[in-house]
Amino acid sequence: MLLPYFQNEFIEAGCDEAGRGCLAGPVYAAAVILPKNFKHDVLTDSKQLGEKDRYNLRDCIEREAIAFAVAEVDHEEIDRINILNASFKAMHLALEKLHISPGFIIIDGNRFKAYQKVPHQCVIKGDGKYYSIAAASILAKTYRDDHMHRLALEHPQYDWCNNKGYPTIKHRDAVISYGMSPYHRRTFRVTDPQLALSFEE
């Protein structure tokens, strides 16, 4: 069972991103504020769940959250400012879109660029520890997957419906065969033989 909050003094938002390790497409981020009494038997890190469960959970999160928002930073900006800064920017944009301002932020991972003057806490593997971060991981992942499905209709040769832009062997082979699409991140070494093969981050 995950924990509801890191602290109880302030309204708390959980943040997470999706797509940082991809070769193509944007990075997405979400911010979620959940009710104090929120509990769920299935909700956890999006990478531990199947696609059907993730989309069912998205409906639940959007129905029960006090506030939620999703934002993206595109591949061109990723190339301009680097993926780490783009991830931070996407999370900041999601926080800005919340209709309730949080007084505290918890973020999945070990690095974050402070948002305004709001105190924050980074939590390693936080999407498996706190409901709000897990909820943010679900929203970021499913909205990004929807986006990559749309791009796959334009460029089916890269198998984005299945790999979502992650560096699978089939994806890398397609880049070698067909070259880069307009949505590939030019600063990522697509054909590097040492590049880790992974569907998820």
CATH topology value of one domain: Nucleotidyltransferase, domain 5
Mean pLDDT level = 93
**Main sheet: strands, sense, barrel:** 5 strands, mixed
| CATH class descriptor name of one domain | Alpha Beta
CATH architecture of one domain: 2-Layer Sandwich
The amount of beta strand, in percent, is 5-15%
Find the CATH superfamily of one domain: Ribonuclease H-like superfamily/Ribonuclease H
Instruction: Provide the succession of SSEs.
Output: EEHEHHEEHHH
Number of strands: 5
Strand order across the biggest sheet? Answer: 3-2-1-4-5
**Percent helix range:** 25-40%
Structural class: alpha/beta
Distance between the termini: 22 Å
Keywords:
15% strand, Nucleotidyltransferase, domain 5, five-stranded mixed sheet, metal-binding, EC 3.1.26.4, 37% helix, manganese ion binding, 6 helices, alpha/beta, Ribonuclease HII
Topology (SSEs and partners):
Blueprint: E1 12-18, E2 27-33, H1 51-64, E3 67-73, H2 75-81, H3 83-97, E4 104-108, E5 120-123, H4 131-154, H5 160-163, H6 169-178
Parallel strand pairs: 1-4, 4-5
Antiparallel strand pairs: 1-2, 2-3
Helix pairs in contact: 1-4, 2-3
